[in-house]
Write a structure and sequence with these properties.
Blueprint (H helix, E strand, L loop, with lengths): L1 H18 L5 E4 L6 H31 L6 H27 L6 E3 H34 L4 H4 L2 H26 L9 E2 L6 H5 L7 H35 L4 H29 L6 H25 L2 H20 L1
Parallel strand pairs: 1-3
Antiparallel strand pairs: 1-2
Helix pairs in contact: 2-3, 2-10, 2-11, 3-4, 3-10, 4-6, 4-8, 4-9, 6-8, 8-9, 9-10
Length: 328
């Protein structure tokens, strides 16, 4: 009888330890288990990430070095490129390195750091895109007051507000999630730590936290997207109604097209990831790749290929470099 009691106590202690075991790392399932496909994806995303780094750095350097681009629109564009570069760097390097890892793991602290940085840069980019829409609204609808409204202090304040909003958004997302208990499954069906997927692994009821994430990220993203679409619609109608010279009207519409394209590329995946109620695993992975790798590369392409001022500035920068090499 004593032996049975001891065995029962031992079993209960074992169950208690199992239920209270602490997860110290998460395992990424990645994009594919096929070795051949992983090699292809490695090369594919490596080229994309190199393009992201070079493209966005080129925009930042061009705007900083060319005095003709020292205007509010290009100041905001340089900050957008810096955010895109940072946003992609949070997930892309690890994803690329994990293609040759048998065990794609990340520590719990590293996972939450990744979530924090993703929402920090994502929230900052959201504000920058709204600011760029406001800049074009003032430039087209109130041209005589443009210099007064979009002065240097206002631009610096907008950028500071963007980084501050990103920080506030990120902290509010993690305020409750960081203390969640993880004692069971630790596999994430993705290549990076996404807050909704991580929450599902917690050993507690996360219904309220799920609602908070939707209210914070989903509603904020949808409302901002609607605001931007309405704003650009008003701007386009203003351009059409104003009797401007053809060259000026064409330039304004070209710039607006680039801005609207970037807005659609950024907000489309965000809305489907955080606000769409019907999750599809394969679609989620595609959207995650598009959001973290493809969009940061398309942004500099859109702004350089569809912007005459940027192309002219790039030619000037190239001539300056060639002349400096010849002189040396």
């Amino acid at each position: 009888m004593k032996q049975i009691t001891e065995d029962t106590n031992s079993w209960n202690e074992s169950i208690h330890e199992t239920n209270n075991s602490v997860v110290t790392e998460f395992i990424f399932l990645g994009l594919s288990k096929s070795r051949e496909l992983q090699i292809f994806l490695f090369l594919f995303f490596l080229v994309f990430y190199i393009g992201i780094v070079l493209g966005n750095l080129l925009i930042v350097i061009t705007v900083a070095s060319d005095s003709y681009l020292h205007s509010p629109m290009y100041f905001l564009l340089a900050n957008l490129s810096l955010i895109d570069l940072s946003l992609s760097s949070v997930t892309a390097p690890k994803m690329i390195g994990d293609f040759f890892s048998k065990h794609k793991v990340i520590s719990v602290k590293g996972c939450f750091a990744q979530i924090f940085l993703l929402h920090f840069f994502g929230g900052s980019e959201l504000v920058i895109l709204i600011a760029m829409a406001f800049d074009r609204y003032v430039a087209i609808c109130k041209p005589l007051r443009y210099r007064m409204i979009m002065c240097g202090n206002v631009c610096v304040g907008i950028v500071a507000a963007a980084w501050g909003t990103g920080l506030l958004h990120s902290v509010s997302q993690l305020a409750f999630a960081v203390n969640l208990p993880f004692c069971g499954p630790n596999e994430i069906d993705s290549f990076y730590c996404d807050l909704p997927k991580v929450i599902k692994l917690a050993c507690t009821d996360t219904y309220r936290l799920d609602i908070m994430v939707i209210a914070n990220s989903g509603v904020l993203t949808v409302c901002s997207f609607v605001l931007l679409i309405v704003s650009y619609t008003i701007i386009v109608l203003t351009v059409q109604l104003q009797r401007c010279p053809f060259d000026r009207s064409s330039k304004a519409l070209t710039t607006l097209t680039a801005h609207i394209t970037v807005v659609l590329l950024f907000f489309g995946p965000c809305i489907l990831i955080y606000a769409w109620p019907f999750a599809v695993e394969s679609l989620d992975k595609f959207l995650a790749v598009f959001y973290s790798v493809v969009t940061p590369l398309l942004n500099p392409i859109v702004y350089t290929l569809r912007n005459k001022d940027m192309k002219t500035a790039l030619r000037r920068l190239r001539k300056q470099n060639v002349n400096s090499i010849v002189r040396s």
